[in-house]
Amino acid sequence: MPNEIILESQNLRREFGALVAVDDVSLQVTAGSLHSIIGPNGAGKTTFFNLLSGNIPPTSGRVLLRGKNITNLPLHKTAHLGIGRSFQITNIFPNLTVLENIRLAAQALGRDNFRLFRSHRAFTKYEDRAWEVIEQVGLADEAMLLARTLPHGAQRKLELGMILAPDPEILLLDEPTAGMASEQVPELMALIQKIQAAGHKTVMLVEHNMNVVMNVSDTITVMHHGGVLAEGTPAEISANETVQTAYLGHLYEETS
Ligand SMILES: Nc1ncnc2c1ncn2[C@@H]1O[C@H](COP(=O)(O)OP(=O)(O)O)[C@@H](O)[C@H]1O
Ligand SMILES: [Mg+2]
């Protein structure tokens, strides 16, 4: 169905004591789109993702997945409903290989994870899935290397592979290029776009640098002090005067 809303927040709010980290955010994500949330550090982006994925409960408001209320479902339940998310802090097992990390991520949502490898068929299934994902994220040459020996750029690809492994319908990526050398950023963004288009996936991406998401996003939501400052296509956002005056100036000061 074209323009189907797959994920929606309604007046979603999260307070930490007196601080309003997410201030009644209402937002709709179209199925199959790449929807970016940008905003300076402290804008509430990560907290918003935590609320969408069920990592923390909201103070008030609702989260809907295809119109169904999923507001107070915990992380493992939303994962089973097809929402995969990354964390700013890495989930990689450093002393396992790339293949082992991705295989574990694939079987984490499988039904037979309590009978680990008892059945050869189950093992083969996850092994096959892991190789598929390894090809997709371009880590075939590194598959047998220990994760901790990977260069930073390859570690970010591994994280992407680990989110992709259980084949989620929606990917929530929190600053997937964090810490990467700037010349490697376009390659990772192109990979994310390819994964989205090829798998008909919905991707939500948090980023503090607007330039990173400008060329790949269908929709950009600008967050500021917990609220939504503006939303639109990349062209609309770059032409938006409120965004330029209230936000861009500060951002470039902050990151330069
Ligand atoms: N667990 C927490 N306890 C208290 N304050 C928090 C917590 N998590 C986030 N905050 C605060 O909420 C605001 C938004 O943070 P965050 O969502 O991490 O922003 P962003 O991801 O946009 O940088 C910040 O002021 C931050 O200090
Ligand atoms: Mg953050």
Please tell me about this protein's structure.
The chain is α/β, with parallel strands linked by helices. It folds into 2 domains: 1-82 and 168-256, Rossmann fold (3-Layer(aba) Sandwich); 91-164, no CATH class. The protein is built from 9 helices and 10 strands. The strands form 2 sheets. The chain has a 6-stranded mixed β-sheet with strand order 6-7-8-3-9-10, sandwiched between helices. Bound molecules: adenosine-5'-diphosphate (ADP) and magnesium ion (MG).
Mean pLDDT: 89
The hetero compounds bound to this protein are: adenosine-5'-diphosphate, magnesium ion
The SSE order reads EEEHEEHEHHHEHEHEEHH
Count helical runs: 9
Quote the distance from N terminus to C terminus: 42 Å
Q: Radius of gyration, Cα only, in angstroms?
A: 18 Å
What number of structural domains do the residues give?
Answer: 2
Shape: globular
Major pleated sheet: 6 strands, mixed
At CATH level 2, the architecture of the largest domain is: 3-Layer(aba) Sandwich
Number of E strands? 10
CATH class of the largest domain: Alpha Beta
**Approximate strand percentage:** 15-25%
Widest sheet, order of strands: 6-7-8-3-9-10
CATH level-3 fold name of the largest domain? Rossmann fold
Query: Which regions are unreliable across 5 or more consecutive residues at pLDDT < 50?
Result: none
Q: Spell out the CATH superfamily of the largest domain.
A: P-loop containing nucleotide triphosphate hydrolases
Helical/strand content category: alpha/beta
Helicity range: 25-40%
